[in-house]
Amino acid sequence: MLTRRLFLQGTAAAPLLTGGAATALGSALPQLKSLTTAAKPISVEERRARIEKAQALMAQRKVAALLVESGSSLEYFTGIRWRRSERTTLAVIPVSGEVLVVTPAFEEPSVRETLQVGGDVKPWNEHENPFEKIVQALKDRGINSGVLAAESTIRFFIVAGIRQASSAYEIIPADAIVRACRLIKSPAELALMQLANNVTIEAIRRVHSQVALGMSATDIAALMEQATVALGGSPGFSLVLLNEASAYPHGSVKPQKILEGSVILMDCGCEVHSYESDISRTWVFGQASARQRKVWNTVKRGQEIALETAKLEVPVGSIDDAVRKYYESEGWGPGYRLPGLSHRTGHGIGLDGHEPPYLVHGDATPLQAGMCFSDEPGIYIPGEFGIRMEDCWYMTSSGPKLFTPLAKSLEQPI
């Protein structure tokens, strides 16, 4: 459900282990081997094909160039994986011809090192105006005026800076171009996502066997992070919610430890060559109450209904509607009210942990083969506990296909 964030309980960074957790990890790690040694990164040819597709879409819409700031879309098209800061790094993808990247001069060698699709780099020095450099980059590609499409996450100060540097361009959103490229995952993308999910589910399996009375959420998160590394994944996040904290999807500031009858909710993910996993499992330490068991079984059925509803060309929002209708028949809600399902049934996933389209009421995007989603219709009871199971899946011509099997039962959550 969550990616690249700091959590109220559990952490995205691996803390140091102490006490029983360190002993448990010491006995478990020697048995772990990397699952990703054969992982193949996205090829240069595939990235170039992505650019060609974007350029064809630009031509159809009479767009002169696509502007892509540092982030997942920059990596998607060019291979450049670059952090955002107050210093602008931006790619100009013209409707025809090669990419040109504008970046700080002292970053030029590193950017050139990861630029996989050809093109050039135009540096700017600290005393210079990067937006004037972007305008010059456009002119260098023969674009003296016209319509520019800005990728949806580009920051406003960059758009404003370009407008101030030149009034010759109209800047519009690029969603219709970028989404058309990124929504449908290729076989190479699906293979990397499968490996990331393999790592995460195996790490959860190992951690599940090590959980002990008295452990804190931090202890469990540390086990998860280090198991993920040992299995060949790059840790993305390890959210661990215990007891009442499990009733709040992003956790609580109140420290919790495992007690007899504790609800343990783990929501974890990793990256393999930048493609993400996102898996949640919930179980009870010791003897589960009848109420805990009932809610767990209801959530499992909610996951099943989501998959049963997933058919080609249906609006993706109808999947959320079907799950919510069932939950309301069981006395939860109605709608997004608590106790019940307060968040969407799922989200798109790929290079970003959360990306469109979304399994939420009102999203009319037709379901197509190659789209990838999470399936996580949790139920949350404030003041008591919450249950969330989550598995990712992708659509095929014959129906949805899971990256990981659904949880078997409350006693066998993996």
Question: How would you explain this protein's 3D organization?
Answer:
With 414 residues, the protein is α+β, with helices and mostly antiparallel strands. It is 34% helix and 21% strand. It contains 11 helices and 18 strands. The strands form 5 sheets. Strands 5-4-3-2-6-7 form a 6-stranded mixed beta sheet, sandwiched between helices. Strands 1, 8, 9, 10 and 11 form a 5-stranded antiparallel beta sheet that branches. Strands 14-17-18 form a 3-stranded antiparallel beta sheet, with helices on one face. Helix 1 (19-28) packs parallel to helix 9 (217-230), helix 2 (44-61) runs antiparallel to helix 7 and helix 5 packs across helix 6. The longest helix is centred in the middle third of the chain and has 24 residues, at 187-210. It is elongated, with a radius of gyration of 23 Å. The chain starts with 9 loop residues before the first strand and ends in a 12-residue tail after the last strand. Mean pLDDT is 94; it is low at 2-16.
State the end-to-end CA separation: 17 Å
N-to-C series of helices and strands? EHHEHEEHEHEHEHHHEEEEHHEEEEEEE
Low-confidence stretches: 2-16
Strand percent estimate: 15-25%
Rg result: 23 Å
| Helix percent band | 25-40%
